[in-house]
């Protein structure tokens, strides 16, 4: 199915179409359900935009300056600073006459529920006030309060489970009960993440390796505690120490980050916040251990940082309970 229709007028410049205002202003809810959206971008980026959005479940029309009606129209712009003065004025007029006009990345954020990282550019990150989790002290204090409260409650509730798990690990195989590993945290500072050991003590004798589904290095007890996420419970200590949050991007190892940032745009921006025991990516995307999987999880991590709220944290925690009960995700 052809999702892209390029009806750019021959001159590539706005015509004299902006004459009549719409009779009804489109609502946000309606804007997010339109079957067709109009995108305006520099001509040299058209093919890239088409390739990125070709799989989306709605039609995208690029640079159609002959558009002459704005009833329930969604108009998105990408790199508008690179448009000509006349083209930018066209977008301003469309806004004045009642069209829904919004940056493309922002619109896709709300419609898809994740950030299209292939469309990111530096300007997306240069408006810190748009990231309340980064710029609002009250938000940070609120999140820390939730973290400590949740960690203390979880520690009390899970204590019997932790004791049984520790005994099971000790009985099954030789080695320490807890496993410590350096991970990269907020502001790119390394810390030691603490987990129940789920693999043999020689799991990385050949060097660092991606953890994969049905990993042969995982012990029998380890398989169960990884599936139920019991192995993550010792990270309560990381939370109390202020190194982690209950919800946030999962912490990764520097050896993998150095490779991933070569192919994934702005991959280290995930370190603008504390890593989490669980996160939006973990409950939204199935288990994976490839660069493509890392790209998808990055889409959810960037979305989480931009749109963080206490309500979103609660939703992630509720979804985490579902993941634990049904053994999905990671």
From TrEMBL:
Subcellular localization(s) per the UniProt record: Membrane
Parts of the chain that traverse the membrane: 145-169
KW Transmembrane helix (keyword) present: yes
Topology with respect to the bilayer: Multi-pass membrane protein
Pfam families hit by this protein: Bac_transf
Keywords for the protein's UniProt record, in alphabetical order: Membrane, Transferase, Transmembrane, Transmembrane helix
Domain annotation Bacterial sugar transferase: ranges: 143-325
Source species, domain of life: Bacteria
Family per record: Belongs to the bacterial sugar transferase family.
PANTHER family, per the entry: COLANIC BIOSYNTHESIS UDP-GLUCOSE LIPID CARRIER TRANSFERASE, UNDECAPRENYL-PHOSPHATE N-ACETYLGALACTOSAMINYL 1-PHOSPHATE TRANSFERASE-RELATED
Name the UniProt record assigns to this protein: Bacterial sugar transferase domain-containing protein
Species per Swiss-Prot/TrEMBL record: Shewanella sairae
């Amino acid at each position: 199915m052809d999702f892209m229709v390029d009806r750019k007028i021959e001159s590539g410049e706005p015509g004299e179409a902006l004459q009549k205002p719409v009779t009804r202003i489109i609502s946000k809810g309606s804007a997010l359900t339109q079957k067709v959206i109009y995108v305006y971008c520099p001509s040299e980026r058209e093919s890239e935009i088409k390739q990125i959005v070709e799989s989306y479940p709605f039609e995208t029309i690029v640079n159609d300056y002959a558009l002459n009606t704005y009833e329930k129209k969604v108009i998105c712009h990408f790199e508008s600073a690179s448009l000509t003065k006349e083209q930018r004025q066209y977008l301003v007029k469309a806004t004045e006459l009642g069209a829904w006009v919004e940056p493309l990345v922002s619109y896709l954020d709300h419609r898809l529920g994740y950030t299209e990282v292939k469309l990111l550019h530096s300007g997306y990150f240069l408006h810190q006030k748009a990231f309340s989790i980064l710029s609002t002290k009250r938000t940070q204090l609120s999140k820390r309060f939730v973290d400590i409260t949740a960690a203390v409650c979880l520690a009390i509730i899970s204590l019997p489970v932790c004791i049984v798990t520790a005994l099971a690990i000790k009985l099954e195989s030789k080695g320490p009960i807890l496993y410590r590993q350096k991970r990269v945290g907020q502001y790119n500072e390394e810390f030691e993440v603490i987990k129940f050991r789920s693999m043999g003590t020689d799991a990385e004798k050949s060097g660092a390796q991606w953890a994969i589904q049905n990993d042969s290095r995982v012990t029998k007890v380890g398989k169960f505690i990884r599936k139920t996420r019991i192995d993550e419970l010792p990270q309560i200590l990381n939370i109390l120490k202020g190194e982690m949050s209950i919800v946030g991007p999962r912490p990764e190892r520097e050896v993998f980050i150095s490779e991933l940032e070569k192919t994934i745009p702005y991959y280290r921006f995930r370190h603008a916040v504390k890593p989490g025991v669980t996160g939006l990516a973990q409950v939204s995307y199935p288990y994976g251990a490839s660069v493509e999987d890392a790209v998808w999880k990055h889409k959810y991590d960037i979305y989480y940082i931009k749109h963080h709220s206490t309500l979103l944290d609660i939703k992630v925690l509720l979804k985490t309970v579902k993941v634990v009960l049904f053994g999905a995700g990671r």
